[in-house]
TrEMBL record:
Domain HTH hxlR-type: 27-130, 194-292
Keyword hit for Aminoacyl-tRNA synthetase: no
Keyword terms, alphabetized: DNA-binding, Transcription, Transcription regulation
Organism for this UniProt entry: Sphaerisporangium corydalis
Disordered, as annotated region: 1-24
Organism phylogeny: Bacteria, Bacillati, Actinomycetota, Actinomycetes, Streptosporangiales
Taxonomic superkingdom: Bacteria
Protein name per UniProt: Winged helix-turn-helix transcriptional regulator
Length: 331
């Protein structure tokens, strides 16, 4: 492998990325950007489920097999991919040379705001779950809570309309669509073992769902915009828009241009998913850097500072840390 030495690492050849677990990956110029790579990672339902259990302390292959309805081949592929992406570090255990456990790296542990935002959204907006959804407990204040998205600069609560911006130097629609590196499991929406997070899987559980939802937060609302800007097949766009409307995340309205056209706009439930989307973008841009610059640039309108995410406890209003959060299961 060849590359150019740099202060933070090596710029690799396309297809041969180096992912240091404790510092950002440097991306090839002109290729998939931080948004596309992140959506490809968290926009895969098996990855999300594996990470959910990893953040709860699971480290060993057999524990994932026992907890998830997952085949040997799929789990092996996902663990290999997450290790290649430096989300996990594979470490030998029990004094043997051929038995390993998968420990979250620094970049893997840094995923907790995304998973916590998903947990919070499902708790607030999804009434029915395949498993009983535990309540969040903040160890610092000792009380149950839901996370609140705030600005890291001014610590005020943030709504989608408070954040303005768009594509940066490495940001285009083409470069932001995740690569199809994995295949979604078949099955009806919200089923197939999604468990605690059924509707999240329907929203970001495959590459086109994640891309369409991201496009909606970027201002896309017409069928042809989703199709043309994202390069998505029309049958996929139609099916995804139908599912999003059924879930109450999008609503159809007549187009202002022509009465026989439809527009698709985020509902309150859809806008409430914003912390998941923006936390994923923020994580991605911390851990993947393009030589041209960031993929997306946002400003928090009320304070005027560049926007970066911070999650706060709704009960005691202090900033959250991953190691201060635990689950309280219903009795």
């Amino acid at each position: 492998m060849t590359g150019r030495a740099g202060g933070a690492g090596v710029v690799p050849e396309p297809g041969a990325l180096v992912h240091p677990p404790d510092r950002p990956t440097l991306l090839p110029e002109g290729h998939t950007n931080a948004v596309g790579l992140t959506l490809g990672l968290v926009g895969d339902e098996w990855n999300l489920l594996i990470l959910r259990y990893a953040l709860l302390g699971v480290r060993r292959y057999g524990e994932w097999r026992a907890a998830l309805p997952i085949s040997h081949a799929v789990l092996t592929r996902r663990l290999a991919h997450l290790t290649e992406m430096a989300i996990f570090e594979r470490v030998g255990y029990e004094g043997t040379a051929n038995r390993f456990e998968y420990r979250l790296s620094r970049r893997g542990r840094d995923l907790w705001p995304i998973l916590l935002s998903i947990w919070g959204w499902e708790s607030a907006w999804v009434p029915s779950h395949g498993e009983s959804l535990p309540r969040m407990l903040h160890r610092r204040c000792g009380r149950e809570f839901l996370p609140v998205l705030t600005c890291a600069a001014c610590r005020r609560p943030v709504r989608p309309r408070d954040v303005v911006g768009g594509f940066g130097p490495s940001g285009t629609w083409e470069r932001s669509v995740p690569m199809a590196t994995t295949r979604r499991r078949s099955g009806p929406t919200g089923e197939a073992g999604a468990g605690m997070f059924p509707e999240t899987m329907a929203l970001i559980g495959n590459r086109w769902s994640a891309a369409i939802l991201g496009g909606a937060f970027q201002g896309l609302h017409r069928f042809r915009d989703f199709e043309q800007r994202l390069g998505a097949p029309p049958t996929i766009v139609a099916e995804r828009l139908r599912v999003f409307c059924e879930l109450g995340v999008f609503e159809q309205t007549p187009s202002a241009e022509r009465s026989d056209w439809l527009s698709y706009h985020l509902t309150d439930k859809g806008r409430a998913f914003f912390p998941v989307v923006i936390s994923a973008i923020d994580w991605g841009q911390r851990w993947f850097t393009a030589p041209e610059g960031p993929a997306l640039l946002y400003t928090h309108r009320p304070c005027g500072h560049p926007f970066h995410t911070q999650l706060t406890c709704a009960t005691c209003t202090t900033p959250l840390r991953g190691n201060e959060i635990t689950a309280r299961h219903p009795s």
